[in-house]
Amino acid sequence: MSDDKTSLKEVVASYLRKNPDFLTDYPDILEHLEIQHQAGAAASLIERQVEQLRASNADLSRKLDRLVQVARENEELMTRLHRLTLELTAMGNRNEFFTHLGNSLLNDFNADILQICLFDRDRAAEAGGDVIVLQADDPALEPFQRLLEQGKTVCGRFNEAKMDFLFGSKARWVQSTALIPLGEQGALGMMAIGSSDQSRFFPGMGTLFLDLLAAVVSDNLNRDVQAEQRRTA
Asked: How confident is the model over 69-108, as pLDDT tens digits?
């Protein structure tokens, strides 16, 4: 008997799925249908549908509010990037350029630690003492080679060896990192931004802002090459 009831329920359920307008044709049935709440109270199907619609609307409203918030944050971020780009472009002195870049990232863009590594000794010397220099074929860079060749920002949590190389003694409190290649396939160097917030930089996040910033830095590093090309043209 129990199997017969189960079979009948399945037949009814299957029929209703295939005929979603059935209750529209027979609205009086709605008055007799009840759905048991988890709290134990019974409610009509219409009341339950109203509750579900309210819950769905509340969820959509939360998602919309979040989208609006993200849009505002992105607009503010791009405004600050535009201002920073204008400020950096106006600086002819490379030391001033990188000093202002570092201060802006740490103070205006909520970075906790910044490390810039350049592969050209002369450029690094002009950039100031906060910029380190390495040869592009230095064996220490081998773990980063694949990331640099991608030519775009990589975000996430790196292994201990990479973290120690990038941030030294401060690596222990860096929970997430953005690694930004400079130049085509990282030919000029790399910039690493560390955060104590593990959710600040994560795989798959949008990196448009950081990629645009890398283009500004790379343009500055290439200025002397471009100027030489114009003189010899």
From this structure: 878 877 887 888 888 889 998 887 899 999 999 999 888 7
- Could you tell me the residue range of the domain that residue 35 belongs to? 22-90
Average pLDDT over residues 120-132: 89
Q: What amino acid is encoded at 148 in this protein?
A: L
> Is the separation of the CB atoms in 147 and 185 below 8 Å?
no
- Under a CB-based contact definition with an 8 Å cutoff, are residues 187 and 119 in contact? yes
The answer to whether 176 touches 198, Cβ cutoff 8 Å, is: yes
- Among residues 85, 185, 83, the alpha carbon closest in space to that of 144 is found at 185
Both 60 and 102 in one domain: the answer is no
Q: Which two tokens stand for residue 33?
A: 């249908």
**One domain, residues 144 and 83:** no
Copy the structure tokens of residue 161.
């060896």
Residues, the chain? 233
